[in-house]
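User: Show me a protein chain along with its predicted structure.
Assistant: Here is one chain, sequence first, then structure tokens.
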Amino acid sequence: MQFTRRIVVRSVLTAAGAVACITVLAAAQDSKSAAGAKELSQVLETAKLDGIAAADPAAPDTFVAALYIPGTQLLVVSAKYSAPALLVEKLNVRDYRGLYMDLHSASVPGSKIFVQDHRADGLVSRPDGDNGADMWDEGDKSTAFDGEWKKAKISEADYTKAYTAADERYAKMLSLLLAQAKAKPGS
């Protein structure tokens, strides 16, 4: 009787552990940025634009800009800029590529986030096949979302936490860019 009870308890614990692992893996795969990246790609293609930029209303002196390589990737940068009036002028004349270049090369040190979204499909925590890893660079730290947390010498939990935080921030960046892309000229 005692032996049977132990087997049942072990079976229940094993099943519970498996469900917990599946839940963690499913949560890691859900991308908050996927819909925004796909929609932004479609809006840019329809408008025949290869870039877009926006000011961040929540943070003066901070801008976000993207270059879109159709069917390939979105390159997105967000950073503070020491002379925001110059970037506002570029926004006003729709010089999105120029704003992107300025933001990428001359941002306030330590404030830049750079995202390489392969396939322009949002951040993917574990890419399948040869799709390439999405990259997240912030300050002097670079993270490849390739599903290889052991290679990065971090725990799976830390990898998932970094992915979730980056994905949420990327989704917010994309929403700013989408709002700008959908705005009517002169508004």
